[in-house]
C-alpha cells in the first residue's frame, strides 16, 4: 500500500501537486482525510504557494468516503474529519484545481466540487450515489447548488445517477475535458498565476469565496445534525450501508 497522500512542490513551491492514494479507488478513509487536512493546514502557512493540484493515484480520482466508516459507531467521527478537511481547504486560501480521471464519486465529488477549476479526462465519471445506500451527502447538498445550480444539484443528489465528462461539462461541473487533466491544470495555473503575487492571489481567493465560506459554516452543522440525529436513526440508513458492504440488494422498510 502506498502513502495515503503525496505532495510534490513544483516551480520553487508556487504549485503543489497533491495526489490521493493508498487504496484501491483512493478511498477517503480517516487516514486520508487526516493527511489531506494537514496538507491544507501546511498550505495556509506556505507563503509562496499560489495553487494546489488535487488528483488521484492511478486510474481513478476517488470512489468516495469509506462506507465502513459511515456505519453508526463511526459516522460521527467520519463527518467530523471530512468537515474539518472542507474547512481546511477553505482556510488555506489558495487556488485549488481538480484533475479527474476515472471515477469521482461521493466524497470524492464533494472534494472536487470545492475546487476553483476542474479538469477531467474523457473517460471520467461523476456521481453522488449516497441515496442508493440510504444516506445523503451533506457537503454536496450545499456546495453543488452553488457550483452547478439547484436543478442540477438536486438531480445528482436525489437520483444518485452517474454522469460522464460530457454531461459534467455541459452542466458546468467540469471546466475542461482533456486527455491529460493534470498537465492541463498546471498549464492553466502557470498561464494565469506565474507572474502574480502569491499574497494577492490568496486575498482574492478569500474575497471571492467569503459568501460560500459563510454559507458552509452556517449550513453544514445543520445538515450534519439532520444526518446524525434523523437519518441515522432510521432503519433504512443502516440497511443500505450494510447491504452495500455485504454486496446484496437492500431491503427497505421506508422508515
Chain-wise SSE layout:
Elements: E1 5-10, E2 15-20, H1 30-45, E3 51-56, H2 75-92, E4 95-100, E5 103-105, H3 107-113, E6 117-120, E7 125-127, H4 138-148, H5 150-159, E8 162-164, H6 165-170, E9 176-177, H7 181-193, H8 198-208, H9 210-230, H10 235-245
Parallel strand pairs: 2-3, 3-4, 4-6, 5-7, 6-9
Antiparallel strand pairs: 1-2, 7-8
Protein described:
The chain has 255 residues and is of the alpha/beta class. It has one domain: 2-enoyl-CoA Hydratase, Chain A, domain 1, CATH 3.90.226.10. Helix content is 49%, strand content 15%. The protein is built from ten helices and nine strands. The strands form two sheets. The chain has a six-stranded mixed β-sheet with strand order 1-2-3-4-6-9, with helices on both faces. The protein has a three-stranded mixed β-sheet with strand order 5-7-8. Strand 1 (5-10) and strand 2 form a beta hairpin. Helix 4 (138-148) packs antiparallel against helix 5. The radius of gyration is 18 Å and the shape is globular. The termini are far apart. The mean pLDDT is 96.
Order of the strands making up the biggest sheet: 1-2-3-4-6-9
Major beta sheet summary: 6 strands, mixed
Which band does the percent of strand residues land in? 15-25%
Tally the beta strands: 9
> Do you know the CATH topology?
2-enoyl-CoA Hydratase, Chain A, domain 1
Shape: globular
Amino acid at each position: 500500500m502506498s502513502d495515503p497522500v503525496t505532495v510534490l512542490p513544483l516551480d520553487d513551491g508556487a504549485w503543489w501537486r497533491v495526489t490521493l492514494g493508498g487504496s484501491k479507488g483512493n478511498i477517503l478513509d480517516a487516514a486520508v482525510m487526516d493527511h489531506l487536512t494537514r496538507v491544507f493546514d501546511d498550505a495556509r502557512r506556505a507563503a509562496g504557494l499560489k495553487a494546489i493540484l488535487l488528483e488521484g493515484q492511478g486510474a481513478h480520482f476517488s470512489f468516495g468516503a469509506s462506507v465502513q466508516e459511515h456505519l453508526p459507531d463511526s459516522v460521527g467521527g467520519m463527518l467530523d474529519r471530512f468537515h474539518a478537511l472542507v474547512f481546511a481547504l477553505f482556510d488555506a486560501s489558495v487556488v485549488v484545481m481538480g484533475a479527474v480521471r476515472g471515477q469521482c464519486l461521493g466524497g470524492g465529488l464533494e472534494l472536487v466540487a470545492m475546487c476553483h477549476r476542474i479538469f477531467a479526462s474523457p473517460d471520467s465519471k461523476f456521481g453522488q450515489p449516497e441515496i442508493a445506500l440510504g444516506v445523503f451527502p451533506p457537503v454536496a447538498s450545499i456546495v453543488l447548488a452553488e457550483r452547478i445550480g439547484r436543478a442540477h444539484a438536486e438531480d445528482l443528489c436525489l437520483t444518485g445517477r452517474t454522469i460522464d465528462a460530457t454531461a459534467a461539462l455541459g452542466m458546468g461541473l467540469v471546466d475542461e475535458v482533456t486527455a491529460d487533466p493534470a498537465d492541463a491544470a498546471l498549464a492553466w495555473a502557470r498561464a494565469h498565476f506565474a507572474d502574480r503575487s502569491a499574497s494577492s492571489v490568496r486575498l482574492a481567493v478569500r474575497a471571492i469565496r467569503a459568501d460560500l465560506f459563510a454559507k458552509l459554516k452556517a449550513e453544514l452543522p445543520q445538515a450534519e445534525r439532520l444526518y446524525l440525529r434523523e437519518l441515522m436513526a432510521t432503519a433504512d440508513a443502516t440497511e443500505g450501508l450494510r447491504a452495500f458492504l455485504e454486496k446484496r440488494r437492500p431491503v427497505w422498510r421506508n422508515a
